[in-house]
Recover the amino acids of this structure.
């Protein structure tokens, strides 16, 4: 499975990916909402004993970089197993919003991702985010192959 970059060539404000995963929505949902699993493919979650119920706020924390303190504030907004949504909040310095939606397909689960809020002067952030989601998508696929 390779992520499908659905970003239009002229798009500069948002990136869009689709991941066709050959795993059940329940399994994908676990990878999206279990802090220990999120830490394996996305970013380290600050509170590992957290149960991500709808409306639960949580934080990713990783190595800071120039212009970013390494903190991503998030909120889980749905717990439907067949149509999961996880709002991965705004990074204070760039104001980006990331939305992940998962729904059942005939062969498993389609995970759709949109990261929006890029400003015209954030071309480097835009390119970095595209690269990063391809990398993290590969880590997600590897994780799903390993877990029961």
């Amino acid at each position: 499975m390779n992520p499908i970059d659905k970003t239009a060539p002229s798009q500069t404000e948002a990136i869009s990916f689709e991941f066709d995963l050959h795993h059940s929505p329940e399994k994908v949902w676990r990878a999206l909402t279990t802090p220990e699993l999120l830490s394996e493919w996305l970013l380290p979650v600050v509170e590992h004993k957290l149960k991500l119920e709808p409306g639960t706020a949580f934080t990713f924390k990783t190595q800071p970089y120039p212009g970013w303190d390494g903190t991503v504030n998030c909120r889980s907004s749905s717990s439907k197993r067949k149509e999961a949504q996880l709002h991965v909040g705004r990074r204070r310095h760039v104001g980006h919003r990331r939305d992940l939606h998962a729904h059942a397909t005939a062969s498993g689960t389609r995970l759709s991702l949109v990261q929006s809020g890029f400003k015209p002067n954030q071309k480097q952030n835009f390119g970095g985010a595209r690269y990063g989601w391809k990398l993290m998508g590969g880590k997600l696929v590897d994780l799903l192959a390993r877990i029961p």
